[in-house]
Protein backbone atom coordinates (compact mmCIF):
# COMPACT_ATOMS: atom_id res chain seq x y z
CA UNK A 1 0.00 0.00 0.00
CA UNK A 2 1.16 3.50 -0.81
CA UNK A 3 -0.87 6.36 0.61
CA UNK A 4 -0.56 10.06 1.32
CA UNK A 5 -2.29 11.97 4.06
CA UNK A 6 -3.31 15.59 3.91
CA UNK A 7 -4.91 18.01 6.31
CA UNK A 8 -6.35 21.48 6.67
CA UNK A 9 -8.07 22.82 9.74
CA UNK A 10 -10.73 20.20 10.64
CA UNK A 11 -10.31 18.35 7.31
CA UNK A 12 -8.28 15.17 6.76
CA UNK A 13 -7.71 13.04 3.70
CA UNK A 14 -6.06 9.78 2.77
CA UNK A 15 -5.47 8.89 -0.88
CA UNK A 16 -3.60 5.89 -2.18
CA UNK A 17 -3.19 2.76 -4.23
CA UNK A 18 -2.88 -0.82 -3.01
CA UNK A 19 -2.90 -4.39 -4.23
CA UNK A 20 -5.54 -6.46 -2.44
CA UNK A 21 -5.14 -10.11 -1.42
CA UNK A 22 -6.62 -11.18 -4.77
CA UNK A 23 -3.88 -9.29 -6.61
CA UNK A 24 -6.14 -6.50 -7.86
CA UNK A 25 -4.84 -2.93 -7.84
CA UNK A 26 -7.28 -0.61 -6.05
CA UNK A 27 -7.18 3.16 -5.75
CA UNK A 28 -8.95 5.02 -2.98
CA UNK A 29 -9.63 8.51 -1.65
CA UNK A 30 -11.17 9.26 1.75
CA UNK A 31 -11.99 12.72 3.09
CA UNK A 32 -13.34 13.62 6.53
CA UNK A 33 -14.64 16.99 7.64
CA UNK A 34 -14.69 17.99 11.32
CA UNK A 35 -14.33 14.35 12.43
CA UNK A 36 -11.38 14.97 14.76
CA UNK A 37 -8.94 12.13 15.49
CA UNK A 38 -11.71 9.58 14.92
CA UNK A 39 -11.84 10.59 11.26
CA UNK A 40 -8.17 9.79 10.72
CA UNK A 41 -8.51 6.47 12.55
CA UNK A 42 -11.58 5.56 10.48
CA UNK A 43 -9.75 6.27 7.21
CA UNK A 44 -6.82 4.11 8.30
CA UNK A 45 -9.25 1.30 9.17
CA UNK A 46 -11.02 1.59 5.80
CA UNK A 47 -7.73 1.39 3.88
CA UNK A 48 -6.75 -1.70 5.90
CA UNK A 49 -10.13 -3.33 5.16
CA UNK A 50 -9.60 -2.70 1.43
CA UNK A 51 -6.21 -4.40 1.61
CA UNK A 52 -7.68 -7.47 3.34
CA UNK A 53 -10.75 -7.45 1.09
CA UNK A 54 -10.01 -10.00 -1.60
CA UNK A 55 -13.57 -9.28 -2.69
CA UNK A 56 -15.04 -9.80 -6.14
CA UNK A 57 -16.91 -7.39 -8.34
Automatic annotation (TrEMBL):
GO terms for molecular function: serine-type carboxypeptidase activity. One of its GO terms (biological process) is peptidoglycan metabolic process. Keywords: Carboxypeptidase, Hydrolase, Protease. InterPro entries: Beta-lactam/transpept-like (IPR012338), Peptidase_S13 (IPR000667). Pfam families: Peptidase_S13. Signal peptide: none annotated. It comes from the Bacteria. Belongs to the peptidase S13 family. This is D-alanyl-D-alanine carboxypeptidase. It comes from Mycobacterium tuberculosis.
Amino acid sequence: MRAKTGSLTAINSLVGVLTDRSGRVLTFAFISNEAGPNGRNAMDALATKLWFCGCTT
